[in-house]
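Chain particulars:
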Amino acid sequence: MSHFTSHASTSHTEEYRSTSPPLVNLLRSSKWSESLSRLRSHPQESKYISTNGETCLFAAFHDCTKHVPLPVLLGITSIKGNSQLISKKMRDCTVLDSILLSLSDLIRMRKRIPDYEYRLRFQVICKVLEMDTRVIAGDTLKYLFHFVRIWLDYGSRSNLSQIKFVFAVTDVILYVNQEKRMRLNGQQSFENFLNRLICIREQCEYPTEFLLIALEQFGSDGCIEYDKNGHTPIINVLESASLFGRDVKTRYKVLKKIISICPNSSQLPLGKNTKPNGHAVYPLHIAIQKGVEYSNGLKLIMMDCTCALSYKDPSSMLFPFMQVASAKDAKVDTIYQLLLANPNVIADS
């Protein structure tokens, strides 16, 4: 964490202390009790911005090895008019990275946290994101999934408040990372969460166990959602070669979980309005295109959507069994199983 620590020169620090209000100096010195008292008696000092763009939040988080207590964070972020608290310099740190590191330490220590405190900590994260969405910087997602790994290793699977908190934090950060804005009033939390979680794995590696738990939590509704590309979660799993393509066992495990949690999810074709050549593209067509073998997921998808056997793949205009037969490494057993599931397709072809 050394690269987060302030490298200000002694002269700059002295100049900063001489020109900044007492609250800022107390925060830089990590004097949390005194900072909280000063914040309550002189709230206007929290709006301070130096000539080079440093704010009181920068002062609090200038050393990421020290964790800012929740009351101090709440006090600063809840004051009206503090819309410019995230300075340009803070985006290099960032304050959100520090908060995630603090949360990781709390989970690792297995410290008991009251339910209300989870809600307050989530409010702080949302407030920081509202101030400036660019607080999600280069390493923020790395720290997010570090927090996730710590929770998987040290957290409580029986603590409902903790589980809700972990997923709420992951959801809001992934949403803002993709949309570059906070949700509008009325937008539903966890909307398209599974699609984002699946797709972000191409950028950030995280334990498959977390995705499986997420499917348990949100799969019944989340597995039928379409993202902006017209993909459902099962299509995103199949389309992402770098995501699961080299790990057939993991892909099979995820496909099995999706279908068990949300039966008939394989019946949802690509895109609500996307029909190349007037034909729907089903997950079965995509699975065959991607070379998914019968025993490694193709059977699961076929049994979940036998109707797709009667539809031609729009790109090749071939029925599924013909798609397999036309491949260079065509598997006779796979062709046989597809025909056995729908022998009438021969008459149609």
The radius of gyration is 26 Å. Residues 1-90 form one domain. Confidence is low (pLDDT under 50) at residues 1-17. The CA atoms of residues 319 and 349 lie 8 Å apart.
